[in-house]
Amino acid sequence: MKALKKVGIILIVLIVIALIAAIFAPKEVIYEKSININAPIEVVWENVNSLSDLDKWSPWNDLDPNIKKDFTGNDGTIGATASWDSEVKDVGKGSQTISKIEAPTFFETDLKFYRPYESEAKGYIKLAKENNSTVVTWGFQSEMPYPFNLMGLFMNMEDNMGETWSNGLSKLKELSEN
Fold first, then answer.
1. What is the largest CA-CA distance in the chain?
2. Secondary structure element (H or E) that encloses residue 169, with its range
3. Strand partners, 115
4. What does the alpha-carbon distance between residue 18 and residue 138 come to, in Å, rounded to a whole number?
5. Which residues of 51-73 are buried (b: 16+ CB within 10 A; e: fewer)?
6. Residues 44, 56: contact at Cβ < 8 Å?
7. How far is it, in rounded angstroms, from Cα 36 to Cα 170?
8. More confident residue, 118 or 159
């Protein structure tokens, strides 16, 4: 009985330590990936300035060729929305709505994920001229609520997302350069 009591006390202490650590752990999650595209910024902009353009190089289309999609609103304008639904866990169910456009350098969407878990994020694409080419930075920003933000200390975003995002940016590069 004493051993069980000691195990219980140790577990409670570990939980309290984790909850205290979560108070100080960052809540903000930011992930970005960049690529240099040998094309003028105006050409690249034409491949990122609407939801249907983003869909042309979306890496998630390869993960589920049977994904169900719906586009509403005037695509390429603030308020237009793309929704998707997939039984594939890595694709899930969600929507993105255009929230900000600064042609030809910035395109932002509000992301809502419903499955496999609920969350919200800002997705964005930044373009910058570099000599005769364009640097594209694809990113997102979100927040993990307390105490789940503690998991952020142990997550490697590059391991979780890097390959998928690299595939998407490579498709954008090929589309823009050809």
1. 74
2. helix 157-177
3. 93
4. 33
5. bebbbebbbbbeebeebeeeeee
6. no
7. 10
8. 118
Could you give the CA distance from residue 136 to residue 172 in angstroms, rounded to a whole number? 9
With beta carbons less than 8 A apart as the criterion, state whether 58 and 50 touch.
Answer: no
- The predicted-structure confidence for 137-153, as pLDDT tens digits, reads as follows 999 888 876 777 667 66
Q: Which two tokens stand for residue 131?
A: 């000599």
Mean pLDDT of the chain: 88
> ∠ CA 54-111-170 to the nearest 5 degrees?
30
User: Tens digits of per-residue pLDDT, 81-110?
Assistant: 999 999 998 889 999 999 999 999 999 999
Rounded distance, CA 33 to CA 118, Å?
A: 23
> Which two structure tokens, joined as six digits, stand for 143?
């927040």
- Give Cβ neighbours of residue 71 (< 8 Å, ≥ 6 apart): 51, 52, 80, 81, 82, 83
What is the pLDDT confidence band of residue 15, given thresholds at 50, 70 and 90?
confident
Cα 141 to Cα 10: distance, rounded to the nearest angstrom: 36
Distance CA 67, CA 116 (A): 14
Candidates 136, 137, 140; CA nearest to 177 is: 136
